[in-house]
Structures are given as structure tokens and as C-alpha cells.
Predict the 3D structure of the following.
Amino acid sequence: MTIKNFTFFSPSGTEFPVGSNNDGKLYMMLTGMDYGTIRRKDWTSPLNTALNVQYTNTSIIAGGRYFELLNETVALKGNSVNYIHANIDLTQTAHPVSLSAETSNNSNNVDLNNSSGVLKVLIDIRTTDGTGVVSSEKPRNVTTLDQVNAENINVKLLSVDGDVSDWTALNMSDVTTAKLQYKKKNGIVTVTGGGNFGNFRANQTKQVAFLPENVRPVGDISVTLSSLSGNNNNKPMELQITANGEIRVWSHYAGNNQYAGGTVTYLQ
């Protein structure tokens, strides 16, 4: 067994080694980066000239390695989406970093701090027509952490794994015209809809739809539906959702063509 001490252990700067691979891993751990993500800061805006882009003063961190692009020019392909990559080859000691414009994202997540190989990572996207650049897109600076503790967070856009951003219609059964739909945002599920739920006997409950597993509640829930006509004599109706995904409608009143509508929201 061996414990190797590196950065910040040396009282005078000479007792312990400073290694580029070790520092690379340190910076990736501190910033929550992996080999497919970057940090990019344009201190001055890149210049588009015909089918070229020039990075006048840009800082990049990729694979835990920091480098600067100073008046570095990349030739672009016309009428194309150009995926500009930084290629880091540590065997090229004089010039370990090069840039290339390619027609797809060919990032490869090579672990250059623990093994050999050339790390290729996307740093920019430039779309061209026949004469020049028509649009650009900067890859996002992604941080991956297990937990964040903060006194205050200001979020412009929040997404949660498993979210369903668009309204999704449910397959209905045993109804006349009623429709239900759902979506899931930030872990909160909303089921809404209404219409003609058909005919009921007094105090009858019938299943009308089924929720996918990823949006089911952890326990059974129910809400009172609003009456949409006099066919149910304005008596209560309920929308019930079970933990196994069944969506049921209950009616207090016996009658035909019973209309109702409502919305239920729950945290999954």
C-alpha cells in the first residue's frame, strides 16, 4: 500500500513532487468536470472572417489541462455545421494542443491523466453557409456534483432527470370524449383534463387510463372534479390515481354522459 502526497503538501515547495497528471485530476475534482466537459472563457469575442474563426483571447480547461488561444485561427468548412475540437496529445511535448474543425461531435472522453491516448473534446460549434459563419454555439460548462448546499440559489432553468417537458396524452378507455394528459417538471407531476366520462351507476368507480411508471405517485391520491354539465346533477365526481398507475373516475350520481374536469399535481 502506498500514499503519494502531491500538491499543497510541501512546506517549502521541494519535499513533494508536482505532476501535471496529478494537478489535472485535482482541477477536475475541484470543478466537477469529466473528460467530456470543458471550461471556456472568451476574454475577447472570437472573430469570424469568411470561412475562418479566430480566437483572439480565449481560455480553455479540458481534461484538467489549462491553455489559452491567442489569435488562433481555425479554417471552417462551407455549408456545414463545424464542430471545433481541442485535441490534447501529451506525447507532443512541444505542442500538445491542436484545434480541428470536424463535421460531427467526436469527443472521446480519453482519460489522459491515468492512461495514454489523445483527448478530443468539443469547444465550439460554428455553422456556415457558402461564404461565412451564420451562427455559433458554445458548449455548456457542466459541473457534476453529488450534493450542493447553499444559502441562496438563483436558477434560470432547472431540469430534473426523468422530467417530461411536453404535455403527453394518455390512452383513454371506457369514456365518451374525455381526455387526460400529463407532464413532469422538476420532479412535479401534473395530470389534467376532462370531458365526457360516459355513463355511471351510483357510486361507481371505473378505470379510464393508466400512467407510465416514471410519473406514478408514491401513494394513492384523489381530487374532486369540477362538474361541466348538469348531467351528473352537479353531484361530486373524483379523479383517483393509484400508486400502481391506475387512473379512475368515481361518480356519486347515476347518469349518462357525465362531464367533469380537473387537475392533480404531486411531487414524485
The first helix runs from residue 20 to 31. The radius of gyration is 29 Å. Residues 20-137 form a domain with the Triple-stranded beta-helix fold (CATH 2.60.520.10). Residues 59 and 179 are 53 Å apart (CA to CA).
